[in-house]
Amino acid sequence: MKKTLTYLFLALSMVLGKGAGAASSSGIVEKLFVQKGTGAVPRTFADKATESVSVSDFGAIPNDGNDDSAAFNKAITYVKASKQALRIPGGTWTLASGAVNFGATGLHIVGEGKPILQFTGTGNGFVMDSGANGAWLQGMTVENITIIGSPTISDGFYSRGIVRSVFRNIEVREVSGKAFHILHGVSNHYDSIKYSAQGQTTKALTGLYVTNNGTGYYTADCTFTNTIMEDFPGNGAVLNDASGNNFQGGTFEGNAVGMVVKTGSRRNQFSSLWFEANTTRDVEVNSTANSFVDSYFGSASSGPNIEVATGKGTTFRGGYLRTANLQSTSRDTVFSAVGFDQNTGGTLGITGTGTYKIIASTKIDNTGEVIGQINDKMGPISGIKFANPREPSRDPKTLDDYEEGSWAGTLVAGGGSITMNSALSTGSYTKVGRLVTVTGIFDVSTVSAPTGALSLSGLPFPASTAALGRAAATVNGDGLQTTATGSIIGRILPGQSSIYIKKFASGAASEMASDVKAGTQFYISASYVTD
Questions:
Q1: Same domain, yes or no, for 37 and 107?
Q2: Number of structural domains, the chain?
Q3: What pLDDT, in 10s, does the model give residues 351-390?
Q4: Given 3-state DSSP classes, what are the helix, strand and coil percentages for the chain, each rounded to the nearest 5?
């Protein structure tokens, strides 16, 4: 028996690289571990055993309810220096709010068996903080953990200034503010992040809140895969300052509002998302060039499924839609190959005065079957808007100006005076490019011995100074002196802002200011070219 124990002690000593018989000079005895596989080389058991680090190595104990924050901090400090991964074994680990910062460049945190991180105290739960607005950490990995808070824990997953990192299979429960609060994340991948408040006592106000980390440091170019935000009376997701992000698959249901895209969150794409059972609306859009692809908007909500408020250039491509309201402050919404629910009165389900287009879309019945096509159409349009001031195009075939308005005309005599009836001496004009068309009626109130030439001044634009500025005007006169015989003619001269009015008889035109009296009226219409 004694001999057997001696051999066992010697074997263990050789495995540990310690004790009698260890070949300290040659290294042969220390290198007892050989990985299976071709090309594997001998290593020590000590090296193999320290390839990864567990929080248990630093005294953290699961399931005992004691605060493990100090042990977690020691483990994080060690792996930051050694560049190793940090393992969190299964079980429940108790941590104090604000006591641990999990943020570090290159830090890899792996949960084994989906451990639970139970946070106590007041504040945020799982925190990764770069430390200041505009600062950033990169190359992190966090996966397979569950974060649980309490009524005094505001944000479950809080990250500030984390870029080019991966977060996978993370669930948040029992928080009162934001389940996931992301401030300045760039080129990150959020894979299977989940907040479902079903059966929970404390419910968040917002599931996913994506914003900035100081002016200019917004969240951009991130991928969100299979995001689940559901079953609480708040906003499933809010994009406060987020641009160029890609959401692929996921569910936003059972909330008050499924998703809000706020002003400043541009060029985001949302693909294959599911919106259902939201009580107010599925999506609200307030920004520019966001697109929804093959998504389902099916909540039987109290309001429209989609509310495009100040959204510009919002695109819905494919998918299913019940109702949409396009506010007057929105424009250029496009519905392409969308399946419109036709169960309520057979209408399109689009309200509001915002401009939109429908392209290659279909009608869907209550079984989800296509029952017909919708003709391509444009919704209410506000016309073509041109720059002010006008910026002329170098291409003579390009329309670069359009304007409408009114103008006040005044009859001017060569001698004496003519007073106009201001209530009935106005006209209207339309300017398309360089071509101006004017119309109007001009009524005389009183005269004082008018003589000589007669002109109607006040044209909205002067005629072109070139020869093509000459134009004829149609003039009809009524209530003139009996001396006004023959027809009345009008002409516009280059560079002038007046119509010159004469009477024509016996092959000649003559001045006619003296033919005007109180109550005289002129009806005019003319088109001319301006510079």
A1: no
A2: 3
A3: 999 999 999 999 888 777 888 888 888 877 555 666 655 6
A4: 10, 50, 45
Q: What is the mean pLDDT of residues 225-252?
A: 98
347's tokens: 């209408």
Whether 337 and 451 map to the same domain: the answer is no
**Alpha-carbon span 353 to 347, nearest angstrom:** 16
CATH number of the domain bearing residue 162:
2.160.20.10
Name residues whose C-beta falls within 8 Å of residue 75's C-beta, 6 or more positions apart in sequence.
53, 54, 55, 57, 58, 60, 86
In a domain, 174, yes or no: yes
Residue 387 inside a domain? The answer is no
Residue 171: alpha-carbon gap to chain centroid:
26
Q: What is the 8-class DSSP label of residue 187?
A: S
Radius of gyration of the chain from Cα atoms?
A: 40
CA angle 80, 82, 85 (to 5 degrees): 70
347 plus 454 within the same structural domain? no
350: containing domain:
53-378
Which pair of tokens denotes residue 215? Answer: 């002016």
Q: Are residues 69 and 191 in the same domain?
A: yes
Write the CB contacts of 482 (distance below 8 Å, at least 6 apart in sequence). none
In tens, the pLDDT along 252-285 reads 999 999 999 999 999 999 999 999 999 999 999 9
Chain Cα centroid distance, residue 305: 17
Tokens read off for 318 = 């494919």
What is the reported pLDDT for 49?
64
Instruction: Express each pLDDT in 464-509 by its tens digit.
Output: 999 999 999 999 999 999 999 889 999 999 999 999 999 998 889 9
Q: Answer yes or no: is 155 within a domain.
A: yes
